[in-house]
Amino acid sequence: DIKIENKLKQNLKEVFGFDKFRGEQDKIIHSVVSGQNTFVIMPTGAGKSLCYQLPAITLDGTAVVISPLIALMKNQVDQMVAFGINAQFLNSTLNKSEMTRVKKDVLSGECKLLYIAPESLTKEDNLIFLKKAKLSFVAVDEAHCISEWGHDFRPEYRKIRSIIESIDINLPIIALTATATPKVQMDIKKNLDMDDSTLFKTSFNRANLYYEVRPKINPKKQLIQFVSQYKGKGGIVYCLSRKKVEEIASLLAVNGVKALPYHAGLDPDVRVKNQDAFLKGDCDVVCATIAFGMGIDKPDVRFVVHYDAPKSLEGYYQETGRAGRDGLDGTCLMFYAYDDILKLEKFNKDKTVVERENAKALLMEIVSYSTLGVCRRRQLLGYFGEYMDKDCGFCDNCKHKTRSFTVKDEVTLALNT
Ligand code: ADP
Ligand code: MG
Asked: Which keywords are on file for this protein (predicted)?
């Protein structure tokens, strides 16, 4: 359809201000506007949002966007509104009159993008309202939340398919995620009943990131030593607990590093202030729990340190992915000790047996990643179902050809680093 084709190009330039599509965006967007079920797996920062935003403003009717976090929704709505688009969200933060206005805008067809949390989607009056609306398609963002195998399981996501069916069985779906291992990928397809979907999957390789694991022996000293190589450069240090975040931020500050803490327990004003200082470069290093990062776009982060072991390789990949967004080198360093794995396991003791086993399997992947002498990139990409012909040459295992990580090696390595 030439008319739609021209409209897409025009909107890309005039609304978003982009000269051209990136990677497979073009093909994905065509798949969506032609009414096909579409499944998109691309790393963070690849530009997945445009794949539903552009079709949404080009097609007739309203696109429903399901998104797991109110903060993410708000960001996107603000951005769309700044572009002059009528986008709104429907979630528990709205009062009655705001709710009425949103619904009016959707029913009149003015609203092009309706962001909605899965919890709100299941509410009876919202369902009745959505049945009356003229909808173009449904986008399921962060689709990995469907899977218990993912790192952000959200039970409400499991109800999405049956709700879509009750609204309109022919409504096309576009599912998007940055974290699909083959298992999660299968779960998403099955749960959204998207066997017929067209899959777009790009490589997860981040060639400019150097991966390294060091045995955690004297981590404070090791950290100071590492960070002091990066004077004036941006970095993130992830710690497991809020307490540890505070402790490490002070430790770095005392040692002359411009470092600030970031975690969900801080006053919201302080959190925003610290985040802004980091984005502006007034602060070099943010010490953070994993609450920090989602939706943060600082291109020149030069290193990401995991002071404590992460909970899963998917999480690790996401968190390290915040380094080197500008395409220049970034270093991803993890301090590893089996003790940390045991600590993480303790967090799961109140969970169900199945949840515990899942969490344990994810942790064992971290143990393998950290202790095997195999190319780290090969392991990370393998986890996402990608096979590498040859080793990367740009990780500690490739550089140093260390064999497996035994206790003796840990000590030897520690003495040499
Ligand atoms: P993802 O959801 O895949 O993590 P986003 O949709 O948040 O990625 O996009 C990441 C960044 O890329 C955003 O700043 C966005 O404006 C930018 N972007 C997306 N598509 C294009 C494009 N075609 N040209 C230039 N920049 C783009
Ligand atoms: Mg996204």
From this structure: ATP-binding, DNA-binding, Helicase, Hydrolase, Isomerase, Metal-binding, Nucleotide-binding
